[in-house]
Amino acid sequence: MIELELYNVLWLFVVVFMLHDFEEIITVEKWAKTKEAKIKLQNKWISHKIWEFWNISSYAFAKRDVFIFLFMSLITFMKVLYLESYWSSILFVGFLIFVLVHNLIHLLQTLFIKAYTLGLYTAVLLVTPYTAYLLYRLKNAALI
Predict the structure, then answer these.
(1) CA-CA distance, 25 to 5, in Å (whole number)?
(2) How far apart are the C-alpha atoms of 56 and 43, rounded to whole Å?
(3) Could you give the angle at the alpha carbon of 98 between the alpha carbons of 95 and 102, nearest 5°?
């Protein structure tokens, strides 16, 4: 079996997370239009807040995601550049924990509104397993 170099595994995380963001960007407008009536019927404060968060244009969502991409790329670059440093491990693992919490929020949003929410599929099927794999690889390399 081919095992990727740790540097490649780290950089691939950026690609995996961007696939997740693409799911959100591509579907955000249609989702907001189709879910608005269902969410407003629920008459729950949290459901309305979820809908308000997602009720934006793809363009506005993509602009927001550019900053996430740049921040994530910078953190990954710092980890690759200073692979064995303690502070880069803290920074990178902190970001990975943030990503896992982010994925949990996708799941909770879906449970609250009782319908698919944007990014759920890639969060559960792609980003969470890859994040766990990345943590495993970092631990195996004695970097965390």
Answers:
(1) 30
(2) 20
(3) 140
Tokens of 80: 């690759």
Q: Are 23 and 30 in contact (CB under 8 A)?
A: no
CB atoms within 10 A of CB 139: 11
Give pLDDT tens digits along the chain (144 positions).
Answer: 678 899 999 999 999 999 999 999 999 999 888 888 888 788 788 888 887 888 889 999 999 999 999 999 999 999 999 999 999 999 999 999 999 999 999 999 999 888 898 899 999 999 999 999 999 999 999 988
Q: Which of 64, 61, 37, 63 is closest to 51 using CA atoms? A: 37
SS3 18: helix
- Three-state DSSP at 25 gives helix
